């Protein structure tokens, strides 16, 4: 079974979602199925079929969350250090074309969210950054085209 690397914050957010789906969503959906079943003929009962579909999706997500949590390898970013980029590093980059500064933390696939500055370890930008250090220049070949970045800072802080 392959381990899934993630930060402690990523693990906690998966636990919170699992608890919500198990303790709040599951009973709510069961109640909706009961109410729809009370309306009679199930073959033409849209509410019943919608509630059953919702139950299927919720149970599938619960199983997915349980699997990810059981295979999680929590990496404590606060205990990491060094000058080279690796999992958990928060990296400050300067786009060499636009001079725009960007800050990304390299995290596991399940917790990646580019809008919040968290990029997946398997993303093109993270793969280009791994092993590099402050002052290095990297070229990232992404779906939007190749871009060059200068690494201006590498640090390890918890999210």
TrEMBL record:
GO molecular-function terms, A-Z: DNA binding; RNA polymerase binding; translation elongation factor activity
Organism encoding this protein: Pseudoxanthobacter soli DSM 19599
Gene name of this polypeptide: greA
PANTHER family in the record: TRANSCRIPTION ELONGATION FACTOR GREA
Superkingdom: Bacteria
InterPro entries: GreA/GreB_C_sf, TF_GreA/GreB_CS, Tscrpt_elong_fac_GreA, Tscrpt_elong_fac_GreA/B, Tscrpt_elong_fac_GreA/B_C, Tscrpt_elong_fac_GreA/B_fam, Tscrpt_elong_fac_GreA/B_N, Tscrpt_elong_fac_GreA/B_N_sf
Residues in Transcription elongation factor GreA/GreB C-terminal domain copies: 83-155
A Pfam cross-reference name: GreA_GreB_N
UniProt key word Transcription: yes
UniProt KW keywords: DNA-binding, Elongation factor, Protein biosynthesis, Transcription, Transcription regulation
Chain ranges passing through the membrane: none
PROSITE patterns tied to this protein: GREAB_1, GREAB_2
One of the GO biological process terms: regulation of DNA-templated transcription elongation
Name of the protein described by the UniProt record: Transcription elongation factor GreA
Biological function: Necessary for efficient RNA polymerase transcription elongation past template-encoded arresting sites. The arresting sites in DNA have the property of trapping a certain fraction of elongating RNA polymerases that pass through, resulting in locked ternary complexes. Cleavage of the nascent transcript by cleavage factors such as GreA or GreB allows the resumption of elongation from the new 3'terminus. GreA releases sequences of 2 to 3 nucleotides.
Family note: Belongs to the GreA/GreB family.
Sequence ranges assigned to domain Transcription elongation factor GreA/GreB N-terminal in this UniProt record: 4-74
């Amino acid at each position: 079974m392959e381990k899934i690397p993630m930060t402690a914050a990523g693990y906690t957010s998966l636990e919170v979602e699992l608890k919500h789906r198990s303790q709040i969503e599951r009973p709510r959906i069961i109640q909706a199925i009961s109410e729809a079943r009370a309306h009679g003929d199930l073959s033409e009962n849209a509410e019943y079929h919608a509630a059953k579909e919702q139950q299927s999706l919720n149970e599938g997500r619960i199983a997915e969350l349980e699997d990810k949590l059981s295979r999680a390898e929590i990496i404590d970013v606060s205990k990491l250090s060094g000058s080279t980029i690796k999992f958990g590093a928060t990296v400050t980059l300067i786009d060499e074309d636009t001079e725009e500064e960007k800050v990304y933390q390299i995290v596991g696939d399940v917790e990646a969210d580019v809008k919040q500055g968290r990029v997946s370890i398997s993303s093109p930008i993270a793969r280009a950054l791994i092993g590099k250090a402050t002052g290095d220049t990297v070229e990232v070949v992404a779906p939007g085209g190749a871009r060059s970045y200068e690494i201006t800072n590498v640090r390890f802080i918890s999210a």
